[in-house]
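Final report, closing paragraph on structural work. Over the funding period we assembled a curated collection of sequence-structure pairs, and we close with a single example.
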Amino acid sequence: MAGGTWLSQTKIRPGAYTNFRAYATPLIQVGDRGIATIALPLKWGAEGSLIEVLSSDLVDGKSRAKVGFTAFDTADSLALRLILQNCYKCLVYRTTTGGVKASANATAFVATAKYAGSKGDLLTIQVADSKFVTGNFRVTTFFDGLEVDAQEITTVADLVDNDFVTFTDSEQPLVEVASAVFTGGTDGTATNSTAYPAYFNLLKTAKWQTMALIEDHATINPLALTFIKNMRDDNGRKVQLCTYNYETADYEGVISSDQGYKTATETITVQMFPAFVAGITAGAKINESNTYKTVNDAVSITGELTNEEIIVALGKGKFLISTKQDGTIVVEKDINTFTSFTPTKDYTFSKNRAIRVMDEIATSVLTVWENSYVGKVGNSTTGRALFKADVIAYIKELQRIEAVDSDYVPEDHIVVAKGDKIDAVTGNIYQLPVLDAMEILYLDVEVKG
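Its predicted structure, as stored:
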């Protein structure tokens, strides 16, 4: 935490700056957030698609069928746990391809893992006499010793594929099998130069807010930056990249860090830390800043900086964590890598809360325009007035939740007019005062002797 005295309002770090002096004796409906995405070299799961994993899936076990692990498999689940402890959904892309599906022979049928990967070798099948109907069999699928499916059947034709296994009739009679063990599963390889372009292509039409990049950053960062710029600037998709060692991106769509932290039981490396950043950024409400957000369970910082080093790093657009005076480890300042300020694109664009508000406005106004006006309402004075009224109502809702300053009068600052062509409409929202959180206090204390 920063502190000290102040002469002018030019401080960089959040904190309280206090001067002591002698007392002078008389002389729109707001959209939801919370979807991140990440590419991982999985050992189980669908290839060539985005796998939806909910935060609840990691706890209730549903993620096991999707990605091969749960929150309790600590080594495998770290990246998703970091993301999903702060947002509700993650779109996971499997970068490993070319693997082999494990399989097992249960005499009457062959069972094959649903997905390629070494995790398939954790599967077993048991065939036992039914306890309920004479002549029937109970076929049970286990994953890492846990029962994940059970079926009562009379013939092999009655078997139904489940979330882990597909069945093939071997034209042999059903018999009891104590444990048919799966073997032969391989993971394949992760070729990032081809995996990430395919991943980016799927993301073009999916709904998400932040991407975590935690591997091979030197190769992938430039590709990801191009993709994010294309999404934000050319396609109106207001998303952000969370990566490491890439403050030179100098772009509001990129958040870069170069620190990590330790808990009592785990180490979150510099490379893994963007997963945490992506989660808190996706999960933050548009009227919420992550400045001074507590890093849960953190006990120490990898790459902790001094006060002077923090000031320099913030000036470079680095997303940092630091230690408050009470020992709590927190996000230092919720910023992105944009630092090339100009009169038309100033310091405001470096603050992620402000970016969230601007992104929300762009996304919500576009949604209203597409759903309620395009091709439906005439380009008349009345039609344009209706659209203006919707925009005004939306800005007032942003004021209600303190995303826009309450002193702003939208009726006086919003203009909707006919464009140059018969089907064109122009809209202008002037001098919109986007709010940020209070971060820096300049305090005078008068002391009376």
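The first strand starts at residue 2 and ends at 4. The chain has a mean pLDDT of 90. We thank the funder for supporting this effort.
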